Hints:
Layout: E1 2-6, H1 13-23, H2 31-38, E2 45-52, E3 57-64, H3 67-70, E4 75-76, H4 77-85, H5 91-112, E5 120-121, H6 127-142, E6 147-150, E7 153-154, E8 159-162, E9 165-168, H7 172-177, E10 183-184, H8 195-204, E11 214-223, E12 234-242, E13 248-260, H9 265-276, E14 281-290, E15 296-304, H10 309-319, E16 326-335, E17 337-344, E18 347-356, E19 359-364, H11 366-369, H12 374-392
Parallel strand pairs: 1-6, 7-10
Antiparallel strand pairs: 1-12, 2-3, 4-5, 8-9, 11-12, 13-15, 13-16, 14-15, 17-18, 18-19
Amino acid sequence: MHIHLDLVGGLSGDMFISVLLDCFPEQGSLLSNVMRDAGFADLVRLESQPADDSTLTGTAFRVLTDKDAEGHAHRHYSEIKRILTESSLDHATLQVALGIFEIIAVAEAGIHGKEVDAVAFHELGAWDSIADIVCASHLIAQCGVTSWSVSKLPIGRGQIKTAHGMLPIPAPATSLILQGFEFFDDALEGERITPTGAAILKYLSPARGIPPEVSLSKTGTGFGTKKFPGISNVVRALIFEQSNAAAWDIDQVLQLEFEIDDQSPEALAVAIDEIRNTKGVLDVLQMAYTGKKGRQGAGVRVLLDPKAELPVMESCFQHTTTLGIRKQLLSRATLRREAVTVAHDGQQYRVKTADRPGGKTAKVEMDDLQTVNIVDRENVRRQIEDRALDQEDG
């Protein structure tokens, strides 16, 4: 499933939740359980209802709190991490929430010249803002979306009042988070994308275009609280499903590339192992080339989860001598596959099975076959793989 976000009015945390609830209304009843698991059930109230601005209809979602009971509205990033990590949130939702908060914290640290864990969230430290991010994280983790894309972003104009005083629009944190995104100016005053909305977009790593061979299956509309002259303050979601019923999945990976001609092979081998072990890395390839002045060098290509861009890029710069890295977001097709274990002659063998257009195939892990005599190895391999396919067929 692919979702394209059309930011007509802009994007905030509650607008993102609103549009996904308009698309997946069955998720609305689950959000109160999410607040209970997060430990926020007594601190916030969730409100989701139909919305209509006389032009469009959709859903409006709000997190409500008792502001008098809120106390100070700022919390340190380290405190929010602790609260979430010690909660009963499911693992997938927790990881998304921590990822979104980290994006905001890194931006705030860069703006204020602080260590990331020392960053204090002001408006975003209030319970309603924290709950917004947790609810959005649940929907991202549970709605089954495999890829995202987004329209150009409305930039907004003017100033906004914050805990740090009046700041220009887009707010500094929003501007830093959204570096690399395309904007347009429709001459409307006011904040169009909040820091929370920006962090959600950054986490989603959306493409600019819609993937090929998909068909539109559903639309949704989420309303914001502000009013803008001449347009509806909404975000629209277009939900696409693969139209060819392909037997493979489409998602996105980030590709980093650079060349090395001044690092010894031994040192580069160690560096590539360090990069490969960095969280989020899918694969690292090394290719020989001949460069300027006839120098022999190595081209390095790293495939990774787009959400891991910053730590993986840091690892590349830290462990190699490269001075620059090219990056490219790519779509990829992956066969659906499973890992199974097959018992043969008292030993367990790991086997990967894949659903190919012509039928299922199986491949035993070569490391597990090393204990088999080389004369018998090919015959044993076939027996194990056949048995794995039989197991899958029941």
